[in-house]
Design a protein that fits this description.
Helix content is 27%, strand content 18%. By secondary structure, it is an alpha/beta fold.
């Protein structure tokens, strides 16, 4: 989980972190990040700053594959008090929200091709659960904190993530998972204004998007339909150009991580956009970690369309988009100043917490961010409030 980022606290809600901040009028900007690994007193103090008393609410965001947690938010994925690890003498209850982000990487296999086993990076990597993860989450829940897993991974539905979490020994309910596909479906069905005859979504992505669109009764085409999983032919050019091959009810093009992307799918998506369809994306993660390396992420799927459309960027619903933060806040009702974002990626997880006005951010070095040197130095925009080597270090 990344914990780098610039945290801004409005006057009256400033957290006192001596030597780690500079004042600019009514704002305090974090300029240095405090290491917490092996620092029991530091952990207790950090968590304690977000105490809201009795009804503390922990919001955990798992960055696509559980990459970042936000509230002490643990990515991805988000709000309540973070419970203290053993030896913290009960000071932990200061974070009212714990957000853990889920990474944008799928774990299962989807037809017709097997999907790689992507790394989560905050709670686990591949099928390896990081030491102390389950115990840390149990400790937080024992303190009365609610945990919410937020992910940028559009390839899996909330139900899929629930199964994955439970397979790793982490109890979870569907309502505790908030993914970019679900966020997109909610926005399209309840917020986006579309003509009555143009409610269909053309999907660039996997079954996770389709499942969440179905949950909101949103009609869709493309996606995993095998009819689109082929090489474009001469007749396709003619029928797409004339509009004969196009569905007139399509009003949205939704792009997410697609392991079967091809020229034909891009041609259809571009044609719909040229005809006025709304351009949306589940998330803008440019890369996806797997097998100890980086591969194209969800943002790489929408990038070609952005180029085709002369630089037009899609409305994105994953971290660090505040559309996702607003949607999460609307569902779970929490005080942002009492929440902390926990994640492994600076550009998505930590930035998500900072731009969302959360009370703190915590970076874990088990994912994309490997060292505190990545946010050190002058001119760094994203600096986490604190960092640990791995989530289990919060046990003290």
């Amino acid at each position: 989980m990344d914990y780098g980022g610039v945290l801004v606290f409005s006057e009256g809600n400033i957290v006192d972190v001596p030597d780690l901040q500079v004042s600019h009028g009514s704002e305090v900007i974090i300029t240095m990040s405090k290491p917490l690994t092996d620092d029991k007193d530091g952990i207790a103090d950090f968590i304690g700053r977000f105490d809201v008393g009795a009804a503390a609410f922990a919001w955990v965001l798992l960055p696509l594959l559980l990459r970042a947690c936000s509230a002490i938010v643990f990515s991805a994925f988000p709000f309540g008090t973070v419970a203290a690890a053993s030896g913290t003498n009960g000071v932990i209850p200061r974070f009212s929200c714990l957000i853990a982000m889920v990474c944008t990487i799928p774990w299962a296999f989807l037809p017709p091709l097997p999907l790689p086993n992507h790394e989560e990076c905050v709670l686990w990597s591949g099928d390896h659960l990081f030491e102390g993860t389950v115990e840390t989450l149990e400790m937080l829940r024992s303190k009365g904190k609610q945990v919410v897993f937020v992910t940028n991974n559009s390839t899996k539905s909330r139900a899929d993530y629930k199964k994955k979490l439970e397979s790793m020994g982490i109890p979870a309910a569907v309502d505790e998972v908030f993914g970019s596909s679900y966020s997109a479906a909610i926005y399209i069905s309840r917020i986006l204004s579309l003509p009555p005859t143009q409610k269909t979504v053309f999907v660039l992505g996997e079954s996770g998007i389709e499942t969440e669109l179905d949950s909101e009764s949103i009609p869709h085409i493309g996606g995993t339909d095998p009819a689109y999983n082929r090489i474009i032919g001469p007749n396709d050019y003619t029928s797409i150009a004339s509009g004969q091959a196009l569905d007139p009810s399509v009003g949205v093009v939704l792009a997410g991580l697609d392991f079967h992307l091809n020229y034909l799918k891009l041609a259809y998506a571009f044609a719909y956009l040229q005809r006025g369809a709304k351009f949306c994306a589940t998330n803008m993660d440019t890369t996806l970690p797997s097998a100890g390396s980086l591969f194209p992420g969800g943002g790489a799927i929408s990038a070609p369309l952005t180029a085709m459309m002369g630089g037009e960027k899609p409305m994105a619903f994953g971290k660090p988009s505040q559309a996702m933060m607003d949607a999460i806040e609307g569902k779970f009702k929490f005080d942002r100043k009492k929440a902390c974002m926990v994640g492994d990626r600076l550009d998505t997880d930590i930035r998500f917490g900072i731009e969302g006005g959360l009370g703190g951010t915590l970076c874990v070095l088990t994912g994309v961010t490997k060292s505190e040197k990545e946010w050190e130095g002058e001119g760094k925009e994203v600096v986490p409030t604190a960092w640990v080597k791995q989530l289990g270090d919060l046990r003290g």
